[in-house]
Hints:
Layout: H1 5-11, E1 14-20, H2 27-30, H3 35-43, H4 46-68, E2 76-79, E3 93-97, E4 103-109, E5 112-118, E6 123-129, H5 135-144, H6 150-158, H7 163-183, E7 204-210, E8 213-220, E9 228-235, E10 242-246, E11 250-252, E12 255-257
Parallel strand pairs: 1-10
Antiparallel strand pairs: 1-5, 2-3, 4-5, 6-9, 7-8, 8-9, 11-12
Amino acid sequence: xxxxxxxxxxxxxxxxxxxxxxxxxxxxxxxxxxxxxxxxxxxxxxxxxxxxxxxxxxxxxxxxxxxxxxxxxxxxxxxxxxxxxxxxxxxxxxxxxxxxxxxxxxxxxxxxxxxxxxxxxxxxxxxxxxxxxxxxxxxxxxxxxxxxxxxxxxxxxxxxxxxxxxxxxxxxxxxxxxxxxxxxxxxxxxxxxxxxxxxxxxxxxxxxxxxxxxxxxxxxxxxxxxxxxxxxxxxxxxxxxxxxxxxxxxxxxxxxxxxxxxxxxxxxxxxx
Length: 272
């Protein structure tokens, strides 16, 4: 299949794919990974090795099957230079080969993975599981001042306790992660300086300041699997359609994995 970056760039579209990893590593997943990915698989705890392997194998398969062509194991990945220090080892991930104008962002939460693909510039995607945040951890994060701006902290405190507070905090966290991934600096920054308008439902326009550079991002809240909270950040000047695309079930051994097809585009945003 030929590189479809021209078609994606013309519409400013973002495609989001998502799925779920099996409980144990699938040899078919391991077979498409490169040496560095395999090293990272084996460096992880046994319980999460299959999560990492399946997410990165799925990244390769989606890119190869739907955008770039060729075998998934032939794709070579690298990094854009970090906008803060210009180090090429920890900027935004990119495809080195085959040559393409497409950008992508991969996120994992437990066995779940999600991938955003576009040709409309920088992009960031984050997913988090509601079940991973208990009440004690939430209270500590809200009170610490390390994650939230003053306004965000006040708004979340005003929500009281329970589900409402958790939803607002997860909205804040995923939006911040998505924006910082799109910028290319990750969360190694002062998260409290980035206000993501937590009181408002998406899409919202968020400003990020890096040194003297101001950038503006449109942050959507795509609906993926039940139990997940997601945020997608993309350039505010390219608000094309966001389409959630399903990864069909496939069965290996005694396990079925992947995500059921999700019809239609995600909610929120413009030009749906």
